[in-house]
Amino acid sequence: MTGLDLSSPVAVVGTGTMGQGIAQVALVAGHVVRLYDALPGRAEEAAAALAARLDRLVAKERMSAADRDAAVARLRPAAGPAELADCSLVVEAVVERLEAKQELFRALEDVVDDDCLLATNTSSLSVTAVGGALRHPGRLVGLHFFNPAPLLPLVEVVSGYATDVTSATRAYGIARAWGKTPVACADTPGFIVNRIARPFYAEAFAVLESQAADPATIDAVLRECGGFRMGAFELTDLIGQDVNESVTHSVWRSFFRDVRFTPSLAQRRLVESGRLGRKSGHGWYDYSDGTGAAERPEPHTAEKAEPPAYVVVEGDLGPAAELLTLIREAGIPVREEDEDQGSRIVLPGGGQLALADGQTSVEFRDVVYFDLALDYRKAGRIALSASQDTARATLAGATGLFQALGKDVSVIGDAPGMIVARTVARIVDLAHDAVAKGVATEEDIDTAMRLGVNYPLGPFEWSRRLGRNWAYALLDDLHLRDPSGRYAPSLALYRHAYASEKREGTS
Q1: 147 given a catalytic annotation
Q2: Is the pTM of this model over 0.85?
Q3: Considering 187, 202, 217, which residue would you say is the last residue of a domain?
Q4: How many domains is the chain partitioned into structurally?
Q5: In angstroms, rounded to a whole number, what is the distance separating the alpha carbons of residues 446 and 442?
Q6: Which of 88, 159, 194, 387 is the catalytic position?
Q7: CATH number, residue 374
Q8: Is there a catalytic annotation at residue 264?
Q9: Which of 92, 109, 126, 144 is catalytic?
Q10: Which residues contact 237 (CB under 8 A, 6 or more apart)?
Q11: In-domain check, residue 170
Q12: Pairing mode, if any, of strands 89-92 and 408-412?
């Protein structure tokens, strides 16, 4: 797949943050770039701001002065759409309103040549709907860059219902030629990243709304146990609560108010209060000191407890099997026993520890659940879930066990599926559902989630590591306890788990 010839001018319409970022990418790639904005003077202001950006790259020795001068010489503010007539690609980055984008592309279609590729950088609107206003909608494709466009490598190349294969192929090649990592995607609400990432925020907010844990503790567990770069609360503060909620509402509405994408009432109240995150000085956390650093409470961390004298491990711990090695390395004797009825760690007093599975602590006498970890050896924190009926000695023994492994322990309320486990299970489910519906390939989804939102693993990497029916079993348990449909496993995930069982039964 080839990109544009460097002699072909590229136009960027819309000179906000995204427009300037995309223009910088095209400039650095070697193109003449024409900047246009409907507001008088904005294109010239954006050109000056872009030149200043390139100056900073020179100061940081990331660009030579000669390359900077050449790039600035290729940057041409345009007074009107007619000055874009010789461009081979026009990328739109204007306000996220369907009518505004349709009006723009209708005007461009009257100006540019028939072989000019038209691209929208929309993150929430339907590419099909944007192209529906064109005489030749096959020339329109989605080129969804991520902010900041010069730094983040991912570009979602979105094919609308009427997009020609040749247009999508050209767009894919352009993104690759510009040094980006493109992924191909069908036109679906949220595309890949904004569709599959919804549970990362939604489940953290749900745990908060159930009063099982506070934001600082949930964030710490997602980072230090789940391996995510940031927790959901600090990340939405960075994105902007209004922006994050707007994307959630857009995906929810576009899926005809599918309960799996239901927005959070807690986040709605935060937005209504004007606490939008870092940009307003206050979100989930307080940024009022002006430094951009949050004043936040410390995560809940349990007091020191004595480890058990020994443990009995019954059955296969599955994704948590590495704990056996860690427990032995800590000098705690381990006795293993075969068990057909499940897998658990039994403490000397008879209390049990089990990996979060979608059930609640209140259902079983004297059981403490522990959360899923990306890597139990490297994890700095483990969350434990207990009910009001859990014996204090059992919770103390579970706490002391994980502390003996060098982990901080956060005790949360009786939250089925806990924090990391239910989040990962839902992400895996949405990913399987997306592949089954032709949204993207497994490889492109994994790439998109790693590069677009810095997940430690792609959903299918998680799925392979955890076992074919792990996510299905956890969500099925959750669905029994919350039959709203929010946790109902998709048909695709059911088929995935059932096919595994069938093969195992005949092998």
Answers
A1: no
A2: yes
A3: 187
A4: 3
A5: 6
A6: 194
A7: 3.40.50.720
A8: no
A9: 144
A10: 277, 278, 283, 284, 285, 287, 294
A11: yes
A12: unpaired
